[in-house]
Amino acid sequence: MELRLNEIQQQIVDSIDRIVDRAGGTAHLVKVVDESGFDRAMFDELAQAGFLGLALDLSPLDATIATERLAYHGAYVPMGATALVYPMVTGKAAAGPVALAPGDDGAIFRYGQNAKHILIDDGDEALLLDVADGDVTVVDNDRAGTPLARLAGNAKGRATSLGAGSGDKLRQWWRLAIAAEAAGTVRGALKLTARYLTDRIQFGRPLATFQTLQHRMSHIAVQSEGAYWLAMEAAARPDSPSHAAIAATRAIMAARLAFRETHQMHGAMGFTREYPLHLWSMKLPALQQELGGATGHARAVTAERWAA
Amino acid sequence: MDFDWTADDVAYRNDVRNFLAEQLPPGWNGYDKHDLPRYKKEAKAFCTALAEKGWLTQSWPKEYGGGDASPWRAAILSEELWPIGEPRGSQYMNANWIGPAIMFAGTPEQKAYHIGRMSKGDVFWCQGFSEPDAGSDLPALRTRAVRDGDEYVINGSKIWTSHVGIADYIFLLVRTDPDAPKREGISILLFPIDTPGLDIRHIDGFVGEQAFHHLIFEDVRVPVSCRLGEENRGWPIVQRALSFERIGAAHYETARLILEDAVATAQRNGRIEDPEVQTRIGEVTALIEAARMLTYKVVDLRAQGLPPTADSNVARVAQTTALQEVGMLAADLHGSASLESGNDADVRNVLAYSVAAGATEMQLDQIASRWLDLPRSK
Q1: pLDDT by residue (tens digit) across A201-213?
Q2: Least CA distance to B372: which residue of chain A?
Q3: If both were cysteines, with which of A24, A189, A251, B44 could A182 make a disulfide (CB 3.0 to 4.6 Å apart)?
Q4: pLDDT-based confidence at residue A232 (cuts at 50, 70, 90)
Q5: Which residues of B touch A297 (CB under 8 A)?
Q6: What is the torsion angle, in degrees rounded to the nearest 10, for the CA atoms of residue A41, residue A43, residue A48 and residue A54?
Q7: What is the tens place of the pLDDT at every residue in A257-289?
Q8: Do B375 and A222 touch (CB under 8 A)?
Q9: Alpha helix segments (H runs only) across chain A
Q10: Class of the CATH domain delimited by A167-306
Q11: Which architecture characterizes domain B7-123 according to CATH?
C-alpha cells in the first residue's frame, strides 16, 4: 500500500493543470459552457498529448487520475467515457469523443451531439454506435451543465453488439467514470466555496468564521475525500465491479450534498452566469442520473457483494 | 499509488490470525468487564504473549523495545483485533499514543521506567482528561497541580474516565498556571492510580458493560519527576498524542462485521428482497469502505514519516459516521430483537463513538481550519 502519486501520475496531474491553465482557466471554461458546453479545443489538445490512450498504454488508474483532475478544474470534456470506459470495454483507444447512453428509448444522456462513438447500455450487452448524421437529437439544457442529447429512433438498431456479458463490463467502467468525475467536481466546488466563504464579508466578518457553515463544509470535505480515494482504489481493482459501484455510490451521495450545499452557501451569487459555481454544480444533476443514480449504484453494491 | 498489500503484509495478517486462534477460545468476542480482576489477568496474558511475538509495540523504534515496523503493520493488527472485541484491553492506548508521547517528551528516567514495562505488555493506563466543566473544551480544564518543593499537590476532579477499573497508571492533565492563556498553563503528570488522596467513584453507564469513573483528587502528592515535558507545555504533547488516538482503532472493521451480521439476518428474514433495504445496505457499505480508505490515507502519511495532519480528523468523522449508520441499519434489519440488551445490533452501542476521542463537532472544527483552511470562528 502506497498512496502517494508516483512520478508518472504526478506528471499527468501537472500536465492537465497546465493544459487548463493555458486554455485560460476558469474564465475560459465559463465561456465554453455559455457557447456549447463542449470544449473541443481542450479535447483535441488532450488527444494530441496522448491522454486518450492512458488506460491501455499505462493503466486505468492513470486514466482515472486524469478524469478526476479535469473534473476538479471544471473542464467540459467527456474524459471518463473517452479515456477510461471506451478503451476498457472495447480494448482500443477512441478515435474521438465518446458518449455513454442508456438503452431505454428516449433517455437523455450527455455529450451525444459531440460524440464520435456512443456506447449503449442494453442490459446484458453493450452496443457500440459509430455516430452518423441524424443519430442524435439535441436536448435543450438552458446552457447550464454538459450538453444533452437523445438517440434518434433508429440509431440503436444501427449499433453493433459487443457480445454477451459486455453490459456488465460497460456498467463497471461507467460507474468508475461517474465516481471519478463526481469526486473531482465536488472537490472543485468545495474549493471554490471555501474561497467564497473566506472572502465574503457579512455581519462584519467573513462568512467562513461562522461555525454553522464550517461544519457543513467539513461534512462535504469528508464525503468528497472519501469519494476520491474510493474512485482511485476501484481503478486499481479492474476485476472488481463492486469497488466501482461502491465508489459511484459514495461519489453520488457526496454530489447530492455538495450540489445543494454549495449553492445554499453562495446565496444569489451562485445562480449567476458570471460567477463560476455553475461550472461544477450544474454538471451534477445529469451525472447523478446515470445508471440509476445513487440508488442504482447502491443496489449494484448489494447485488455484487451479497448476490442480493 | 499502489493499493495492494505487500506479500509481507499478507503473511503478517495470516500470522496474526493464527496467533489469535491459538490465544483465544473459538468465537471469543470480548472480555466480561463485570469481572475486573479476571479481565485484567486475561488481557495482561494476551498482551504479554503479543509482546513475546514482538507485535505489541512493533511500530516503536528498536531502541525503545519496538520493531521499527511500518505503521501498516499496526493498522493490520488493529483491523484484526478491534472487530473481535480488542483483546489488548486498554493497552492499545499504550502502543498507539501513551508510549509515543513518553518517547517524544519524556526524561531518560521516565523512558527507562515506563517504556520497558509497556513494551512487555504488563501495565495498563487510563487517560485523565475530561472534567465536569471541561469536556469538548478540554483546554479549559481546572484540576490544579501546585508546586510544593519537589512535589506537586493535586486538587480537582476528572470524569467520564474509561479503563480506570484495570488501570495501573494515569496520564493526567493538570493546570499548573491558572493565570496563563488556557493552553499555556497545562502540564502532564504520570503516576500510579493508587496514589493516596485519589478517590475513584464508579459511574454506571447504560450501554452494555460501559462504565465510567469520577476521579476526585484531594491533596494528591506526586514527585515533580512525574511530569512529562516542561511545566505548562503539556498541551502540544497532548494534541500530538490525540492525532494518533483518533484513528488508532479500526472501527470500520467493527462496522463491517455488524453489517455482515445484519445482511445475514436480512437474508434469513427476507428483508433483503426490499429494494429500499438493498439501497441502504449499498450506501452503508460505501460509507464503511470510505472510512477504511481515509484511515489508510492517514497511515500512509505516517508511513512516509510526515507529521500528523487534519486527515486524521477526516478519517475519524468518516469512521464514526459509518459506525452509526451501520448501527441504525442493523437495528432495523434485526427488528425488535435489537432491543434486547447484549444483542450485537444494539443500536446504543454505536452512540458513544462520535463522542469519544474528541466529539464529532470538534473534529469538524479541525477539518474546517486545518484541512479547508477556513479562518477560525470568533
Answers
A1: 999 999 999 999 9
A2: A194
A3: A251
A4: very high
A5: 282
A6: 160
A7: 999 999 999 999 999 999 999 999 999 999 999
A8: no
A9: 7-23, 25-35, 40-48, 54-57, 60-73, 79, 86-90, 155-158, 166-199, 211-235, 241-266, 277-281, 284-289, 293-306
A10: mainly alpha
A11: Orthogonal Bundle (1.10)
